[in-house]
Amino acid sequence: MKRALIIALREVKTYLQDKGDLAFSLLLPVATFALIYGAFGGQGLFHGTAYIVNEDTNGVYAKQLIENIEAEDSLDVELLFLADAERKLERSDINMVFLIPADFTDKLRTGQPAELTFMQRGNGGQDGQIVASIIRGIVSELNQEFQVRGQVEQALVGKDVSPQKITVTTWQFLERERKYPLIGVKEVVVGNKPNTVNEFLPGIMTMYVLFAISIGAAAIVEERRLGILERLLTTRLTAGELFFGKFLASVSRGFVQTFILLALSYAVFQIFTPLSFLTCLLISFIFAMAGSAIGLIIASVARTQDAATWIGVFVTMSMTMLGGTFFAIQKGTILYTLSKISVNGYANDALKKIISEGGTIADVWLELVVMAGVFVVGLVLSRLLFKAIPQGK
Amino acid sequence: MAEAFLVAKDLHKSFNDHKAVNGVSFTIGKNEIFGLLGPNGAGKTTTIRMLSTVLEPDVGEVTISGFSTRQQPDKVRSIIGVCPQELALYEELTALDNLTFFGRLVGLNSRETRAQSMANLALMELEQRAKGKVSKFSGGMKRRVNLAIALMGHPKLLFLDEPTVGIDPQSRNKIFETIQGLRTNGMTVLYTTHYMEEADRLCDRVAIMDGGKIVAIDTPRALKAKLGDPDKTTLEDVFLKLTGRSLRD
Ligand SMILES: Nc1ncnc2c1ncn2[C@@H]1O[C@H](COP(=O)(O)OP(=O)(O)OP(=O)(O)O)[C@@H](O)[C@H]1O
Ligand SMILES: [Mg+2]
Fold first, then answer.
1. How do residues B120-136 score in pLDDT, each as one tens digit?
2. Any chain B CB within 8 A of the CB of A3?
3. More confidently predicted of A94 and B48
4. Which of A47, A312, B18, B244 has CA 20 to 30 A from A263's CA?
5. How far is the centre of ligand 1, averaged over its atoms, from the C-alpha of B85 (Å)?
């Protein structure tokens, strides 16, 4: 046991002394976080571009439609020629184009239904879908306007009323309708705005813990290849102590890394209370144990350092993606079922519950139990598989 | 020969049907420098791995100072030191940190560890570079660190698997002197090498291995005498006569 500690201490000391290693393991998560924050944080509101092909070049209604879309804060308008639009769609530069046909104004003027075309790749992409639904809203407002105008015209048919008068009357109707809608929508803001820090921080942290553990696993494989592990067994160190020492080293490495990152975010973002900070440390610790058990399985099955690195990258990336780090996984999909195997998912959920939902340890016991289970099963399995010497102990 | 310190009886070891060691028996006397010679692939390293408890023989028994490697590996490990054929050390650590680490693992307390680390580095004339990273060392210096690690804990029996391979005459002479000095202080040594004049100069007795078997075992002088005038014959002549001139894979 004491000798296992000697093994672990040596590695932690090396990690803390190696400025490059230390810097990488802390700066890379921070850099990734900054990137994600830049990509998803800051601008809280949706902002998109409506790509429009207007074939009805002189039509007043087409012009009005485009003006209405431009008036929308969340949308920019980019006008394209049909050929350009098709080429861009083809190359996936854009996913959704709105086509105003040449007869748009004529049809509306003669009281026939006119048709807009949404040209899209696949489902049009998430942004495309949002832009499309905003445009649908604008179109239905226009529809309403035309209908009201039609009714007003019909009511006034035969009477000597100027078109200006009709327009004014129509507007008055619409104004009243807008002021006193039959179904109103009221916006109530609850709590803080969705917080990018809380959302992405746990996932990025747990991802880098697994990366660090994978690097540790690859180092074990290299030590085996160099005969260092074998040499260690000619001292008084037993194979069991060696295994346990490597486990402790890996846990400490992962935990030290999360500790520093959590402490940094405590200082920078002030997202913790002392208690929630401690709870997060506990979650990170159990996660580091589960991850380390997985790391030791990798170190046991990989024959070469490269193999260990690649297996580690694969495991880390799958766990990270399935853990909902970069995109939320929708319930009811196959991915959702698969995501249940992601140990990162449990850690991320637990950390989010504590950080953004103000939860306590009682709210995350399930996640803790699952991670502890992964740790126990993983550790037993890796102990059975682990060999210091390829054909020996 | 003095009282037997190491007794190896009928050792066998196969790797996937390939017999690496095939019935090897010998004894090493206390305070003896024993040479294990043989062409590449003869089975020298495999034999040392079995003697040093890290590989279990398929068949055969080893006792060291009365302790069985099978039943009392921990006892055996507490009295042996191993200097592996390949450099088995942490290049990213300093020489001193390497020695300290192994010192703690052989059971020294921190004061003993520090004292022995400095003494062994001094013995290898590396004290000036104690705090230097091993990765920055020359080949000869690395070999000397490799040996210094094996000396931690003052082992009674030292296994040296080609400790002088690929180094200059200065480093080699240093290692020679060290081994002779250690023997004077009571250590027993098992030494493998491909340099026959080295073995001739250093070893009390040598065993010549080939194809997993020992083909001759005696003092260098006696082996040479079997071939002719021991003052004119070399151990290399004996070696080539016994193991033939064909190349080994
Ligand atoms: N782990 C292993 N797996 C498979 N074969 C092995 C293994 N270790 C050794 N061998 C084989 O066993 C034989 C003896 O190898 P060993 O390393 O003991 O020879 P050696 O006498 O030390 O050679 P050298 O002088 O090159 O160091 C060789 O044919 C080698 O290929
Ligand atoms: Mg060898």
1. 999 999 999 999 999 99
2. yes
3. B48
4. A312
5. 11
